[in-house]
Specification:
The chain has about 1350 residues and is an alpha/beta fold. It contains 37 helices and 49 strands. The protein has a 17-stranded mixed beta sheet, with helices on both faces. Strands 9-10-11-12-13-15-18-20-22-23-24-25-26-27-28-29 form a 16-stranded mixed beta sheet. A 6-stranded parallel beta sheet has the order 1-2-3-4-5-6. Helix 17 runs parallel beside helix 18 and helix 28 runs parallel beside helix 29. The longest helix is centred in the C-terminal third of the chain and has 17 residues. InterPro entries: F-box-like_dom_sf, F-box_AtFBL13-like, F-box_dom, FBD, FBL60-like, LRR_dom_sf, LRR_FXL15/At3g58940/PEG3-like. This is F-box domain-containing protein.
Length: about 1350
């Protein structure tokens, strides 16, 4: 795009022309996009062409000079010459040297074709001792072939030259059976369980002459056959016959041998019973010689289509660029395939392919896209819809009005009566086939109407004719709309006919000028499901027959006058009624009652032009779920019963007289009860169980002048309020006060009449004075939405609306989300409003997220936590002490969450509280023995508790206790059935009774010095213990005592070990079959544990932090899901590792040379190789480099987190990433590391000697946590760019900053967007700080999204940083 097109003065039309020019494919073709790709991708592209053609690219530029040499596939053909004049002969010595070189490099696929009289010497022996190459002709015999689990097989079996000659002589005499020249039957029987099979043309020959009989392939669903002009299809019939489940058949070409030797009769017979549904022909149109012409191939396709009964789709891949040939092929098939039962439809898609869909057959023609852009295919004007069956055409016609459907009768003789077969009939006398007549009547002469009694005979005759033709067809729906006057007898006759035919859906909308009396059959139907009546007259029902509509679920009455008794009778006859719609229903006596037990949805609407109050309205619908009520308020509501109401939309209106009375009362000093001009209190009390409520601005007026008091809405969680400049917010404070569970509050606009709010309910709108209390300070609302923000009426100002929103922020303490839907097209306005709200100095909620949304922009931010105001801490002076009203058990339960000392301090509050603390179930004591008061306090609390059960007992002693003091306490709580026991006591032998508790579920020991596990404990029995935490506990028998402890916990699920000193033990073994979570932490000392074993087959979570052990005899983590590993080297091992690195620099050793091992943790890492989520500390990377002989393969690992340290290199990372084939998410905690020779393959600190390991990485998501500012050298920034340039599968890059709104966030995002070479074709970039998130797509797109980071993203970041 030119710079001028981005100037502010440029018009929109000019910018549009500029964009279209830039998107023009011809204009874009001049730009070199290829050179912007990374080297590895260009080399991959070059591998698809011959090496001579790839080598020709070396003259393009200096960068391209050696790119062709990096391809992994080498194709040499001496028929392909860049310079044909310089053709020479290649000696056998040169070819042999070439073969030796490629065999040394471990070639996987070797294709050797040499035709020369000089090459009579044997091939090099190295070709036949390769571990990567397998090739053979058929063997003389196959004694044992066992492929029980085979899914896919590709076979290219060949016969020898002698076998081919012998087979050819057998072909000369066709009167004799085919002679077998070898036997491959056993081999084919061994692969008979295969599901997907690919056969070469040579294999077809083997099946003909070397396999009798052909085995049964019962599981085969996909078969691919390669064809050749020299190979016949003799074995094909028997093969297809023995594939009973075959669904897809693929031919690579349609070439075959002598047509006289092809068994077409046998092929036709087997195809007639073939289950094949999809047929594909690759290389369709490829002709090998004059004999193999297109007519033969088209004949074969036609033969397949005629003989395969289950065929649903044929896909032909045409190898031509000429669209005229394709067009002729389309015409051939469309004109000659006469066996199709349904007509054809063409669907045209011009891009890289033209897709033509012919009913059951689909043809895919791959063509040249440039040719397709210049010429447009003409597929002809054939009528494909006429080929559809009558029932399908009738079904299509049922979706249009009957008059339009009838117009199709003139198309052809077949169409004459098709419209009469539709199951839906819709008649509307206002729809004219001649639009000019309709416009003339409706628009030009709207005052012209038909005279009374004048019947439009053409419309009547049309309806009569359709009903006669339709008399034997099932009728689902009948709709009749008559604006003209038609005699009642005619309409009643129509209704009787459709009722006799069991219509399901009846919709009547007829004029009332002649007075209609509906037939009684309409109200005694056993088939009717939906009934809609609009007769604009009085509804009458036959008293003798009554109403019996047992299946009616939906009833709509529109502009009908009805007596209350008739309406009640109608409802009582609809036993299964679920939905009732009353639109402008008029009761003769001015009262209405809706009583029904099964009703779930009710809609009552009356036009506002009827300015009168109904005398009485009652509702008794206990199962109603949805209510839409729009009407003037009634004088009284005797009964309102909505027990199950979930959602209600109210538009209650006062009449003009009531509004005048309300305005006049405002000028007179009256009590609130005297100001009432109507009474809707009973109605609102009847809907008090509603959960979702919508109130119009008219309803707000009703709440002000017609409802005292406002009821309590205990279940309301979502409230929507429509606002108007002429209506005040007087009832809102009391309404919000009576919604204790309200979570979402929605305003449609922020308009209201400026008026003093009721003082007793405080204020909702922005107050004139700062210290006026507001009802919002106690509001539980979490989500506040404001629709139509920015709508201005009259003298309103947008600043007033912003101040109102700021008032909400200042006074709503529980608000978590504020959303403004700004009705503006200017992004600058959205930015300005978002900035004013984001940096507002006083905010009541500390976790409020603000979003400002317009049509084309969305800005989100979080309010600063430091500016939270304390306005919500105001207490009402008359607040009552509600706590004392609680029962004693509930107060004791509350006190159990406090330390016992704090709970005991409540005993001074009153006489009732004196002993309440002693009944708590959780006891927490912390003190020392030097304080006699503490000992007495514990003794007294335990004595007051008596024999009451205890849930938790915690004892923390900061000094050395007397065992005679502590032991009785422990025995006391054990006797009372304690389930959680925590002891942190120094120099104390644990009593034996602890290890024989039948109720302990959680045991935490340690925290002090000298807590010991006595050797006197011969056996441990803790049958219910699920959690065991041990810290600094001395086991007198070392590892033997520890094993004894674990063996007595049969259901142990979580084990935490902290500084148990197992480095002094002879061996340590953690063996627990039921263990699911294990945490082990040991302080950094200068000793290695001697032997560590893990036998936890069901472990799912592991945290392991310790010096590496000298050996790991057994490591069994079969079910491990997540592991956090922080292994360390001792000082001596670190010194040895450092000297090893210095030797590498001094002697300039190669990167591939193995490092000197200073320890052995190989077995441990092999034991955790099944992990899915892995966290490695920086020191663990050092352990992997110097204490792991070979990095194991982590096949299940999908998320890896790596911690970096400036003193430790990344030597082990290349090998680790290479062995994580399924890794999807890679997380770096910092990028600063020690620069070593071994990390040059991974990072940007060293020049690359070999291809980077990142180029083959499967990582899709890369997250980088930068806890500080980017270093001055810019190495972190370069490292991120290096990741972008080398990781081809990267889909998302997220960089987290642990800082506030800073320019460095914008700077880094901008620099990363400008990276020129990106390995991934589409990577989403996010740079996230505490209150800002910048997103873009790389390569950089024009659209950016600026918003605050999502809560879950930033929470994840904070957790990772800590």
């Amino acid at each position: 795009m030119s710079p001028d097109s981005c100037l502010p003065g440029t018009s929109r039309s000019e910018r549009k022309v500029e964009r279209e020019r830039n998107l023009d494919p011809i204009a874009m073709s001049s730009k070199d996009y290829m050179s912007g790709l990374p080297d590895c991708l260009i080399s991959h592209i070059l591998s698809f062409v011959s090496n001579k053609e790839a080598a020709s690219t070396s003259v393009l530029a200096k960068r391209w000079r050696y790119l062709f040499a990096l391809t992994r596939d080498l194709h040499f053909d001496d028929f392909v010459y860049l310079n044909p004049e310089k053709k020479s002969k290649t000696s056998r010595t040169i070819i042999t040297s070439w073969l030796l070189k490629v065999m040394d490099r471990g070639v996987l696929d070797l294709d050797l074709q040499i035709i020369s009289s000089d090459m009579d010497c044997p091939l090099p022996s190295e070709m036949f001792v390769s571990e990567t190459l397998y090739s053979d002709t058929i063997a003389d015999k196959y004694p044992k072939v066992e492929f029980s689990s085979l899914v896919e097989a590709r076979l290219d079996l060949r016969m020898t030259k002698d076998q081919l000659v012998k087979a050819k002589f057998s072909d000369d005499d066709r009167s004799l059976p085919v002679e077998m020249v070898a036997s491959a039957t056993n081999f084919f029987m061994g692969i008979c369980n295969v599901k997907v099979l690919h056969l070469s043309s040579d294999t077809l020959e083997v099946l003909t002459y070397c396999c009798k009989p052909i085995p049964e392939f019962n599981n085969l669903v996909h078969l691919t056959i390669q064809t050749d002009l020299e190979v016949s299809w003799e074995s094909l019939p028997a093969l297809l016959k023995n594939c009973p489940k075959l669904e897809t058949l693929v031919f690579q070409g349609l070439h075959y041998g002598d047509i006289n030797h092809t068994p077409w009769e046998d092929i036709s017979a087997c195809l007639s019973s073939s289950p094949v549904k999809k047929l594909k022909v690759l290389k369709f149109g490829a002709v090998s010689c004059d004999i193999d012409d297109m007519d033969r191939q088209m004949y074969i396709i036609k033969h397949f289509e005629e003989t395969m009964p289950n065929l649903e789709e044929v896909v032909l891949y045409y190898v031509t660029r000429d669209h005229l040939i394709i067009y002729n092929c389309v015409l051939y098939f469309s004109n000659n395939w006469t066996s199709l039962k349904t007509p054809s439809q063409f669907e045209k898609k011009i891009s890289k392919a033209v897709v033509v869909s012919l009913s059951l057959i689909s043809l895919f023609f791959f063509v040249d896209p440039v040719a397709m852009s210049s010429k447009r295919l003409n597929l002809g004007s054939k009528d494909y819809i006429s080929g559809l069956p009558d029932c399908l055409i009738s079904h299509i016609l049922s979706f249009v009005p009957t008059k339009e459907a009838a117009s199709t009768s003139v198309l052809a003789k077949r169409w004459r009566y098709l419209f009469a077969l539709t199951p839906n009939l819709e008649f509307n006398d206002s729809i004219y086939l001649n639009s000019e007549i309709a416009n003339q009547r409706k628009c030009t002469f709207p005052w012209i109407t038909r005279k009374k009694g004048k019947t439009p005979r053409s419309f009547v005759d049309f309806v009569d004719r359709v009903l006669v033709l339709h008399h034997n067809v099932p009728l689902n729906r009948f709709s009749l709309k008559c604006e003209d006057v038609i005699h009642p007898a005619i309409i009643i006759g129509w209704l009787l006919k459709v009722m006799d035919r069991g219509v399901l859906d009846l919709d009547l909308n007829i004029s009332s000028e002649m007075g209609y009396r509906l037939p009684s059959e309409m109200f005694c139907s056993e088939t009717l499901v939906r009934l809609k009546l609009g007769i604009r007259d009085v509804l009458t029902i036959n008293k003798e027959k009554g109403v019996f509509l047992p299946k009616v679920k939906t009833l709509c009455l529109d502009y009908i006058m009805v007596k209350n008794s008739v309406f009640a009778k109608l409802l009582s006859g609809c036993h299964a009624l679920e939905e009732l719609v009353l639109n402008n229903l008029f009761e003769v006596k001015g009262s209405c009652s809706v009583f029904h037990n099964t009703l779930e949805r009710l809609v009552v609407r009356r036009s506002r032009t009827f300015d009168e109050n109904l005398e009485s309205v009652s509702f008794s619908t206990p199962n109603l779920v949805y209510l839409d009520y729009s009407d003037a308020i009634a004088n009284m509501y005797p009964k309102v019963e909505f027990n199950s109401l979930v959602e209600a939309s109210l538009d209650l209106i006062m009449t003009s007289d009531q509004i005048v009375s309300a305005i006049s009362n405002e000028d007179i000093d009256r009590s609130p009860q005297e100001e009432m001009v109507g009474n809707a209190t009973n109605f609102l009390m009847g809907i008090c169980n509603v959960k979702i409520l919508y109130l119009s601005y008219n309803t707000l007026q009703v709440l002000t002048y017609c409802c005292k008091p406002i009821p309590q809405f205990n279940n309301l969680i979502h409230l929507t309020i429509q606002t108007d400049p002429e209506v005040a917010w007087e009832p809102l404070p009391a309404l919000l006060k009576n919604c204790p569970k309200l979570e979402t509050l929605v305003f449609e606009g922020l308009h209201h009449k400026i008026k003093n709010c009721w003082e007793e309910d405080m204020c909702l709108c922005k107050p004139w004075e700062e210290d006026i209390p507001t009802c919002l300070s106690s509001s539980p609302v979490k989500v506040l939405k404001i629709l139509k923000f920015g709508d201005i009426f009259g003298d309103e100002d947008i600043e007033e609306q912003i101040k109102q929103v700021q008032h909400f922020l200042e006074t709503m303490p529980n608000l978590e989300q504020l959303i403004l839907y700004y009705d503006t097209s200017f992004d600058e306005d959205v930015n300005e409003v978002s900035a004013q709200l984001q940096w507002h100095p006083r905010v009541a909620s500390s976790k409020c997220k603000i979003s400002v949304i317009s049509d084309n922009l969305c800005l989100s931010s979080t309010v600063p936590c430091s500016v939270v105001s304390s306005s919500h801490h105001h207490h009402h002076p008359h607040m009552e002490d509600m706590f004392n009203r609680l029962p004693n058990p509930l107060i004791s339960h509350i006190l159990s969450f406090l330390p016992t000392k704090e709970a005991a301090s409540t005993s001074v509050l009153s006489k009732r509280w004196r002993l309440l603390f002693a009944s708590v179930t959780n006891l927490d004591f912390e003190g020392d023995e030097e304080s006699p008061s503490f000992v007495e306090f514990v003794d007294r609390v335990l004595a007051l508790g008596g024999n009451d059960s205890i849930n938790r007992f915690s004892l923390i002693f900061t000094d050395y206790p007397d065992p005679d003091t502590v032991t009785p306490w422990i025995l006391n709580v054990l006797r009372r059935g304690v389930s959680e026991l925590e002891l942190s006591v120094s120099d104390y032998p644990l009593p034996l009774e602890i290890f024989f508790s039948k109720r302990l579920a959680k045991l935490k020991l340690g925290g002090g010095d000298g807590l010991s596990f006595s050797a006197d404990v011969k056996k441990v029995s803790l049958p219910k213990l699920k959690t065991l935490e041990i810290e600094s506990v001395v086991f007198e028998e070392d590892g033997v005592g520890f094993v004894k402890l674990l063996s007595g916990c049969p259901v142990l699920e979580e084990l935490v070990l902290v500084n148990i000193g197992w480095e002094h033990w002879k061996s340590c073994s953690v063996s627990a079959k039921s263990l699911r979570k294990l945490k082990f932490f040991c302080e950094d000392n200068d000793e290695n544990p001697k032997s560590v074993s893990f036998d936890t087959p069901n472990l799912e979570y592991l945290e392991y932090s310790d010096n590496i052990a000298k050996k790991y005899p057994k490591v069994k983590f079969r079910s491990l899901v997540e592991a956090h590993i922080s292994l360390r080297l001792t000082e001596d091992q670190s010194a040895d590792a450092g000297s090893s690195e210095e030797d590498e620099y001094l002697f300039e050793s190669d990167d591939d040379e193995e490092k000197e091992m200073v320890g052995n943790a190989t077995n441990f890492f092999k034991g955790i190789c099944n992990v899915q989520i892995l966290y490695l500390s920086a020191k663990t990377l050092e352990v992997l480099a110097f204490c792991c002989e070979a990095t194991p393969v982590f096949n299940n690992l999908i998320q890896l987190t790596v911690e970096s340290d400036e003193e430790i290199g990344w030597d082990s990372l290349p090998g680790l990433l290479k062995n994580c084939p399924n890794l999807e998410t890679l997380v770096f905690k910092g990028l600063v590391h020690k620069s070593t020779k071994g990390c040059g393959n991974m990072c940007a600190c060293k020049p690359l000697k070999n291809p980077s390991c990142l180029s083959s990485s499967a990582v899709k998501v890369l997250k980088i946590i930068l806890s500080t500012h980017i270093d001055d050298d810019g190495m972190e920034e370069e490292q991120i760019k290096h990741f972008l340039e080398k990781m081809p599968r990267l889909e998302q890059l997220v960089v987290y900053f642990n800082e506030s709104y800073e320019p460095s966030v914008f700077e880094l995002s901008k620099k990363l967007q400008s990276v020129s070479t990106i390995a991934s074709p589409k990577c989403n970039l996010q740079v996230i700080s505490q209150n800002l998130s910048l997103s873009s797509t790389l390569p950089c797109s024009l659209a950016k999204k600026w918003s605050a980071p999502p809560n879950e993203e930033y929470t994840w970041f904070l957790k990772a940083v800590t």
